[in-house]
Write a structure and sequence with these properties.
9 strands; seven-stranded parallel sheet; alpha/beta; TIM Barrel; globular; about 10% strand
Length: about 350
């Protein structure tokens, strides 16, 4: 099969398809026993991210075992702050922790950024190259990056948070420093995505995981200009924007120019179509917790979602797969989509 005729790429180019394509958000393979076997043999998550042949292997697992319609390179959004000079660690069952954080404008000025910083992430590009060769054009390969605001939130807060109050306070107290950091992040993200494209990815997605922490005025000021710049500068391959929780800025996200918009589970498919029409390609938006229910229930929810969007739809979850998600639920979801006919 030629990758040019792949379902995912056809949908992203607004071409008709006989069924919707399906893939799963990043790190979906972690629900597989094969992934856990590899993970248990290593010192930690970061070792897996930084070892190209292992990152390639776990990228391929959902394709080989589950039969999804695209692969998404196994990596982490926090490699960007790391290459800029802010290393992190992943604490088991607690999440990412930064050894140092951004506290002042002086800290921002010390950061590396742009292509010279992005070039330090050779292990990512090597993993892309290995994965592309192993895929042999069976399905497209997706690369991703965290959005500027989401990365800023981690860099200022130092870890995950229920409020991200330190990061939000920076936007209010010192907007100039916030914009300076967002500019550096944006330049680095663009360079990073372009290097991933050069290495072989066929699609890129930008994850703004903490978009819903902001009000519309803050999002429109501190997020949208940078997201639009990323989309404007990435023209080599299709782009997907996923801003979790940013329903308040949906018109702006739609008009930012990406090939597709990711939607979380708080947005009803038919309501979205009634408001914004049927021409925009969307990705999502099944609640990941649906996969905990029995296969019949999973099938019903998946079919209702597809019917609601009707067309121009890439089937996915409304966010990532939770680590304890039952494999039977994931398989029921994928099989439902693959057997669906418009």
């Amino acid at each position: 099969m030629s990758i040019q005729n792949d379902l995912l790429l056809r949908v992203l180019n607004n071409e008709p398809v006989e069924r919707p394509p399906i893939w799963l958000m990043r790190q979906a393979g972690r629900i597989l026993p094969e992934y856990r076997a590899i993970r248990s043999s290593l010192s930690g998550f970061i070792e897996l991210v930084t070892t190209p042949h292992l990152a390639a292997e776990v990228t391929l697992q959902p394709v080989d075992i589950l039969g999804v319609d695209a692969a998404i390179i196994f990596s982490d959004i926090l490699v960007i702050p790391e290459c800029m000079g802010l290393p992190y660690e992943l604490v088991e069952k607690k999440g990412p922790r930064f050894l140092d954080t951004i506290k002042s404008n002086d800290d921002v000025k010390k950061l590396g950024f742009g292509r010279s910083a992005a070039e330090e992430l050779d292990y990512v590009y090597n993993a892309v190259d290995l994965t592309k060769k192993a895929l042999d054009n069976r399905v497209p390969l997706i690369g991703f990056a965290g959005a500027p605001w989401t990365l800023l939130a981690y860099m200022v807060e130092g870890q995950g948070s229920k409020t991200f109050s330190k990061a939000k306070a920076l936007l209010y107290k010192d907007p100039n420093t916030a914009h300076e950091l967002l500019e550096k992040l944006t330049e680095t993200i663009i360079a990073y995505l372009k290097l991933k494209i050069k290495a072989g990815v066929d699609v890129v997605q930008v994850f703004d995981s903490w978009a819903g922490m902001l009000s519309k005025p803050l999002y429109d000021t501190f997020c949208m200009p940078y997201l639009k710049r990323i989309v404007d500068e990435i023209k080599e391959v299709p782009t997907i924007l996923f801003s979790k929780g940013a329903y308040f800025s949906m018109p702006e996200l739609i008009h930012a120019g990406s090939n597709a918009i990711g939607l979380d589970w708080t947005i009803e498919p038919q309501s979205f179509r009634d408001t914004f029409g049927y021409e925009k390609v969307v990705q999502g938006n099944l609640d990941p917790c649906v996969l905990y229910s029995d296969p019949t229930e999973v099938r019903t929810h998946a079919q209702n979602m597809i019917k609601g969007f009707e067309k121009n739809h890439i089937v996915n979850l409304g966010h990532g797969v939770y680590p304890d998600t039952p494999l039977d639920g994931v398989k029921a979801f994928i099989n439902t989509v693959k057997s669906y006919q418009y």
